[in-house]
Design brief:
The chain is α+β, with helices and mostly antiparallel strands. About 25% of the residues lie in helices and about 10% in strands. The protein is flat, with a radius of gyration of 22 Å. Bound molecules: iron/sulfur cluster (SF4).
Length: about 160
């Protein structure tokens, strides 16, 4: 959902999300149409692609996606830190049980990961989704539905007198 920052934009964005949920849709929708246009900011794009070109890029939890990122064009290599200061990087290792990729694609919820809240939490992150506070698993851990436990108080029930 693309939404603006004004309170009415946020509310309208939430309404549109709820409508998708009720109608069983999962689509990119644009609430912020007065600023965000399908063709983008032509002038900014022109400058951007003069300096950068598409490149295969590795994304946390998703792996390498062809042409999903940008790198400086060869004529700007003198400004490219990766060219000037090459660093050997070990490939990212992801724990076998981590389902971050499925979560980022919206195919699974964080609490469907068997490690969530047990071996993996914000203090001891195992996968990339738990590392930073805006990570999907970290946010779900902090703000998701309350975790039930055997010692949790049962919900109060109301019995009709009679
Ligand atoms: S809870 Fe941890 S291990 Fe599981 S998907 Fe999230 S980051 Fe990966």
């Amino acid at each position: 959902m693309i939404a603006g920052f004004e309170p009415l934009d946020v509310l309208q964005g939430l309404v549109m999300l709820m409508r998708q949920r009720v109608e069983g849709r999962a689509e990119v929708e644009n609430e912020y149409y007065r600023i965000v246009r399908p063709e983008g900011n032509r002038r900014a794009l022109e400058i951007l692609y003069r300096v950068f070109e598409p490149a295969d890029t590795e994304w946390r939890g998703l792996g390498v996606i062809p042409n999903s990122g940008l790198r400086l064009r060869p004529e700007y290599a003198r400004f490219d830190a990766a060219v000037r200061l090459p660093v050997e990087r070990e490939p990212l290792k992801v724990h076998r049980g981590c389902i971050c990729g499925d979560i980022l694609r919206g195919a699974k919820r964080p609490d469907e990961c068997p490690l969530f809240g047990k071996a993996c939490d914000p203090e001891h992150p195992i996968g990339p989704c738990m590392v930073s506070s805006e990570g999907t698993c970290a946010a779900y851990f902090r703000y998701g539905p309350p975790k039930r436990s055997a010692t949790a108080r049962p919900e109060r029930s109301v019995h009709a007198a009679g």
